Amino acid sequence: MPMRFLLSVSLGVSLAGVSLAGVAMADVPKVATDITPVQSLVARVMQGVGAPEVIVRPGASPHGYAMRPSEAAALEQADLVFWMGEGLTPWLEGAIESLASEAHVVELLGAAGSQVLPFREGVEFAAHEHGEEHGEDHAEDHGEDHAEDHAEEEAGHADAHDHDHDHDHEGADPHAWLAPENARAWMRLIAEELAEHDPDNAAAYAANAEAGQAELEALSQEIAAELAPVQDKPFLVFHDAYQYFENAFDVTAAGAIALGDAAAPGPARVAALRDMAEARGIQCVFSEPQFDPKLVETVFGDAATHGVLDPMGSQLEPGPGLYPQMLRDMAGAMATCLGGAS
Q: What is the pLDDT of residue 39?
């Protein structure tokens, strides 16, 4: 009898421990994110506490996507959703409204303090300015009026160029995760949002965010030093996704084969790009793993060195380390391709 009693008590305590552990795990918010770079930032803040889900699988373009059932389920079960906004994934807006109607949704592109730039137009890009002024404007008014006003100026400039497309590119460029300054600001925001839903782990979220911000600050300094020797060398990109990175590290994209939504260029744009590249002596052209590189080869052949930029980190393991490694890889690709250009 005493032995059976002891076994019963021991089993009860064990089961109680399992139950309590389950409750603790259940208290950690279920988080969904749109793309792997955003998932990486959230994962860094949640490191040691939980792991966020990603909707757009690695290697896919976010501009157009069909969710798998498991991805739709992750969205439906989410307590928190972090996404760039409908400018990057317009197809996701309706899914969030229908599947994650009870979740708290954070649009990073609309967050106070974010650096937001307008879409660029035309075949040849105007010289960019650094993003501090844009970021200050956005901190005051979330950048909507600023982006619209600047987009009208850019559109007026673009009318002087021959660009054949039927898409409306006015408004904010959504590729804002490529500015480390934004990533650092978003880490703090992510920690604050998580803390509201999970106060027991607020200290862990804050500490992770602070450590992640310090890591990105150090990495930015490393990348700036790596790219300093090639800052004066123009290059072409597959689609206009990189102006945030350009502003951060003072490198210069002269133009893009496709516009910001990655729509295929028409014959007039391709011809104008060839003429511009020849006139400016551009010898470095970047493709992307999400899109067919044959277009770059068709446009430029052997007339330029071909590099690869991956703004999504599609070849990397999702998680806390993806975002910084993605920046390192982009900087390395630029330094290699531009360093070989005469």
A: 98
The answer to whether 52 touches 32, Cβ cutoff 8 Å, is: yes
Q: How is 262-287 classified by DSSP, letter by letter?
A: -PPPPHHHHHHHHHHHHHHT--EEEE
Average pLDDT across each block of 10 residues of the chain; the chain has 342 residues. List them in order: 41 37 63 98 98 92 88 97 95 96 96 93 67 40 39 34 38 94 98 97 98 98 98 91 96 83 76 86 87 72 84 94 98 94 55
Task: Give residue 225's identity as a one-letter amino acid code.
Answer: A
- Total-model pTM: 0.79
Nearest-angstrom CA–CA distance, 298 and 342: 23
Query: Angle, nearest 10°, between helix axes 36-46 and 180-197?
Result: 50
253 forms bridges with which residues in the sheet? 235
Q: What is the DSSP string of 282-309?
A: --EEEE-TTS-THHHHHHHTTSSEEEE-
How many Cβ atoms sit within 10 Å of the Cβ of residue 152?
12
Contact 186, 108 (CB under 8 A): yes
Amino acid of residue 52: P
CA 154 to chain centre: 23
Match 């990109």 to its residue by tokens: 237
Cα-Cα end-to-end distance for the chain: 89
Map tokens 């599609």 to a residue. 314
Contact present, 305 and 50 (Cβ < 8 Å): no
